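pinning this so it doesn't scroll away 📌
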Amino acid sequence: MSREEIGRFVGLFDVVHFASIPPSLVLRDPYSKVTSYDPGPAVREIKEPVQVDVLFLNKREAESVNMDLVKTKYTVIKKGKEGATVVSEVEECSVEAIEVNAVDTTGAGDVFDAAFNFGLAEEWNIEDVLQFASVASGIKVTKLGGTSSPTYDEVVSFLSKKKPKVNCR
């Protein structure tokens, strides 16, 4: 797809998420509640400014990206068993990962991204967004296959019993 083709979809969705595509194709939708980008291997291609609401990175990617080129409300660093950290202009918050018996980690990062974006679109506070995303991705790894995402009710049920700790500064 070209940037122009992507532009035809502007205004159609509450959440727009780009994943594993070159940064030159990422287009901030001014009408969406959330526009996010998880570059994956394309992180090496970030050589010009990228503007999104949320940038998702893993630890290795976070060390390699030039953050001066990223204009974002939130930068989220996913750290697997070590949880995740979100950095905004006003605070930095970290959430612990839930303890589970991991069966398959395929898709855990994608589930985290989707759950985080959902919470932002719902206008939850950042602590609740992080807890929801951490639990969703934690439940995901207990299931086999890349498409075995937890349901909303599964995540809410887990959170009603135990919430992962969030520390903000």
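📌 and the second one:
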Amino acid sequence: MYEITREQSEKKLLKLAQTDPLTGLANRVRLTDVFERENRRSLRQGTPLTVMILDLDHFKSVNDRFGHGMGDKALQHVSRILQKSLRRTDLAARLGGEEFVLLLTETSEKQAKAAAKKIRETIESSPLMHSGETIRLTVSGGIAEYGAHGDSLQALIRQADKCLYHAKQTGRNQIIHIEDAPDTSPACS
């Protein structure tokens, strides 16, 4: 009996250590663990692996106008959309603030672009209500594929982040991958 209780307690502690407490999504620790496992599998099986970074547009104005409690609700709302939009084999993680990372297994950059469009449109068409007022949310993002754009989680996040900033600089509410960037900016810089 003691052994079962101890094992259950260890599992709970491990889950807490790998979960963002506000959104229930994976945190950086779990993202890193899952990436390493999926990366090895991707290499073994020759399947693609893609990272997508999403950042809520103008999130500071939500906090400023409606309060941090409503900002938290917005993050939870987006987290639920992400969880519903992904396959069981994919992973959504919160990096911090209003930034999320999606790890898309067996997904090429082209396939990730289609998934990104669906996610972006779902977030845009799913406003929050607060005291009779509509709070519209949008996201900007970037996509990077393992191999073509980097060979580590950090390299992929860095590349996707460059594309994210390009998306923010060119109008927001869009998710960019390298081929979407202008010819003069092949690295989304």
